[in-house]
Specification:
Helix content: 55-70%
Number of strands: 0
CATH superfamily: ACP-like
CATH class: Mainly Alpha
Shape: globular
Number of helices: 4
Order of helices and strands: HHHH
Radius of gyration: 11 Å
Strand content: under 5%
CATH architecture: Orthogonal Bundle
């Protein structure tokens, strides 16, 4: 499932064991360096480029997963 892949990326980049699909990137302490690392992981692991503005607009695992799915990406 795509949301599981996105959640795993977030957990790794935030250094957390678990993140809810409804946790907000910014509430978790997200900042630009983490966002850039996550953006790179989306490209490398999911094969989709997520523009920075979309990452700001979709700041939860659930919402960014829906956006990525709309771009045709599939979980690996």
């Amino acid at each position: 499932m795509l949301a599981d892949s996105v959640r795993a990326i977030w957990c790794r980049e935030f250094g957390l064991d678990d993140i809810s699909v409804d946790d907000d990137f910014f509430a978790l302490g997200g900042q630009s360096l983490i966002m850039i690392r996550i953006q790179g992981a989306y490209m490398e692991e999911l094969g989709v480029e997520v523009p920075m503005d979309q990452m700001f607009l979709h700041s939860t695992v659930a919402s960014i997963s829906a956006y990525i799915a709309s771009q045709g990406a599939v979980a690996s």
